[in-house]
Write the structure tokens for this entry.
Amino acid sequence: MAITGVVGVFSTMQYLQTILLEKEAKNALTALWLNRLLNTGFALVIALVILIFHNHIAFWLKNPAIHRWLWLIPVSIFFSGQNEILRVWANRCQEYNILTLNGILTSILIPVFSISLGLLYRGNDLGLFVGLVIGQCAPALILFFSLRRKHDFGQLKEHTHKLIPFAKSNKMFPIYSLPSEFVNRFTNQLPVFMLNQYAGAGAVGVYNLAVRMLGLPIQFIGNAISTVFQQRAAKDYKETGSCRNIFLKTFKTLGVISLVPVIIILSFGPTLFSTIFGAEWYDAGRYAQVLILLFAGKLIVSPLSYMFYISKKLKEDFYWHIWMLVSNSALFLILFRLDWDVRNILLIYAVNYTLIYLIYLFRSYQFTIRSSDTLETQ
């Protein structure tokens, strides 16, 4: 999952947001087909790489047992990519009911199939991988057919002659947004790689459970609100030059919502995790306590930071992501070499990340009104 999350950023070369940001419907359709074509081609390239180098990759990861599952990476990249592309299109068309169903299916299918197959084949890791793939394939297929019943995507051949000119006219996305998103995803997975290297797979498992549980509010609530904010903010910004009202309204809503998990986890985190998942997962609750402010910040800031796309401040966004990676990498390397406790290392990581989120929030707020130099910056 960590590999797919990092590598998958290249599957659309970050032309994804052009689907929502384009004013004309015909240009948005061109953007749709460009993204679908790039995603398909990239998945095929990764499949070829896995076919040739799967043993080498497993050796490099110091995990020989994973080599037989690596072939699922291109499958995951293709379906998760197509799902995200269609979600952006549905957002543009304000198909919020379809998006809600898609989000529920994505969240439910993975654990349902993972747990069911885990019970059926005890001691086998089949359920984890099959559950993940089904949880990505099914929502993408359902979303595709649901949208096709209401919207005409046309045919690829109708847009073939427009793809290259469109890609060139929006080259700022692969130039700045692509490396930014790659760095962002790598930074998000940095604790996984560092813990695996210095603390072992057991620490990775404890961390991942904490992160998955803390991510649920973002997955269910944050994504839903983010979808509405992106569509409305982009529309207001294009039509009036300002989207400050919807920005502040969204900020207040997310701020109030984030208080609930913060209070619960800080007060009862270890008890909750050990009660629900078993006594051996007590440390996951302790990890959750030091990470909760980071995830509260992510719940609030991630949707609002879409202002960097709307105002096309992609170069600045790239620089901040570089700082995220450099500062967090330095923290992990130094603190692990000083033999700090894992929980304390994660606390410092969370504090550093939260401070960066505060900067993002402030800059996003500044971008809600189009400045006089916006066109020059673009």
The two ends are 35 Å apart (CA to CA). The chain has two domains: 1-169, 171-369.
